[in-house]
Hints:
The chain is an alpha+beta fold.
Amino acid sequence: xxxxxxxxxxxxxxxxxxxxxxPPGDAQLPGSPTVKISGAYGRTPAxxxxxxxxxxxxxxxxxxxxxxxxxxxxxxxxxxxxxxxxGVVGPDNYCAERDCEIVYGRRWRVERHLxxxxxxxxxxxxxxxxxxxxxxxxxxxxxxxxxxxxxxHELMADLLNAGVQLPGDDVVLRAIAINGNPxxxxxxxxxxxxxxxxxxxxxxxxxxxxxxxxxxxxxxxNDDQPxxxxxxxxxxxxxxxxxxxxxxxxxxxxxxxxxxxxxMAFSKLHRNDGRLGATEVAIQRRFKMNHDIDTVxxxxxxxxxxxxxxxxxxxxxxxxxxxxxxxxx
Length: 329
């Protein structure tokens, strides 16, 4: 196999050297614009700042972030690389006697040159993944948790490839439970040609996942199963709870209470080079830095059973822009 446009290792080494030379922590690029906030105070937008972060830098930023209970935010350094780890305190979902334990989500690697805004989005994604894992184990059908994150998918693929028909009936609403409590359907409204809207009451709530409470609406499409609709509604509810409860410097920056119009105005305020009055020097420095980051972010690959077919597909697609993988010969 010949890859038509492999990235140069010389360019990779140069990009690494350029990024190592960036000031420690975060710093504004020469000639960068600022957004006036109040009086003489202003802030340089993230796209005109360089980032060269250590574990202590990541910790210092994450100290400005607060999460809703029962989530805990940790920063771990492993082999010189910071990682975000989310802890969740609550009952053991499979052992009623263990009513308070701590579990951890997977580690989320923090690249040294990630901006603080991207770091905050990583924290949000880590929280979403951890909460989704717990939520999958709280939704049960007939005493089982069919959506749990511990299914053996290799075994499932083997069974399906062998033509084994797994027995199973359509799930009825009365068989679905959340936190061990059957869902309470207060009303069901048909929508002609679409499906039906379920109006549910989830009860008083659970401190370990407090968004599982009160009223919840789910849209069951005509070609959908009820549990899929209930799951989608719960997942949306969990995302909203996180976006409202995750705070940066005391502010819910991801909250849907900030309207689309407000976010449009904010984007125009700080993402438009012309409106910012950005100098050509700053724009070119940003372009060079971003290209170095993209070069380092492109993977260094050995050929093998996964990489070779993917490289062949990449060769067929033949993108004209972006950095191709670095291939070890």
